[in-house]
Structures are given as structure tokens and as C-alpha cells.
Amino acid sequence: MIRRPGRDVTLIGYGGTVATALTAAGLLAGDGIDAEVVDLRILRPLDDTTIMASVARTHRVVVVDEGWRTGSLAAEVSARIVEQAFYELDAPIARVCSAEVPMPYAAQLERAALPQPEGVRAAVRELVTTDG
């Protein structure tokens, strides 16, 4: 489901990462970058139709995932985009995932390990300046 329409980049998230993506989209709007936010809502089956339609509109993607980068849902979503919409991409797919460490209990360390809006913003800014 599209939670925020946009034209410059697609931010894909689920669960708690949707709020992170929406916050990042607000920060990016201040930078003049119009980010579309896709909320996966259901992980099985993935909503490939919504994902690919968004990729076709924006031509850039950042997948935000609270899981580790290795073997993550972000990796699966990225693979599907490459399989189904590779020629729509103007830049490599970016993934903003949790640090590959055991999840800490202390709140400040947990925040440091989880994806944050500023990290998403930095990934998007790199994609926008890396036009193929």
C-alpha cells in the first residue's frame, strides 16, 4: 500500500520501519526530494504489483528493514525488484538495515543498531547523486 506518494525515490518498509521511512520522507522533502513510501503490510505474499509500480514511477529504491542485511527481507525485496523491474532502475537498490550485531537492550544502543531516518536520508541522497 502506498502510504505517501512521491516521484523521486521509493522507500519500502514494513512494521516499525514504515514510521522510519515516513519520517525520512519528511526530511527528504526539506531537501527537495519527493519520496514515495510503500508499506508492505503483509510479507507473505509480498505485494509485488505495488512494489514494481512504485519502482516504475520513481526509478530509485531504498528498502528499510529492521532485520540484518544478510539474509533479510530487504534482500528478498531487492532480488524481486531486480528480477521484475531491473530496467526501470536508474541507480542501484540501497538497503538500510540493522547493524549485524546481537540486538542490545539499552535504549541508546538499540537506537544505534536499528535503521534511523537520517540513515535512510543519507542512502537516498547518495542514490539521487548517483544517477546512472
From TrEMBL:
InterPro entries, per database record: Transketo_C/PFOR_II, Transketolase_C
Annotated keywords: Oxidoreductase, Thiamine pyrophosphate
Transketolase C-terminal domain segment(s): 2-120
Presence of keyword Protein transport: no
Cofactor: thiamine diphosphate
Protein name: Transketolase C-terminal domain-containing protein
Organism: Paractinoplanes hotanensis
Lineage, uppermost ranks: Bacteria, Bacillati, Actinomycetota, Actinomycetes, Micromonosporales
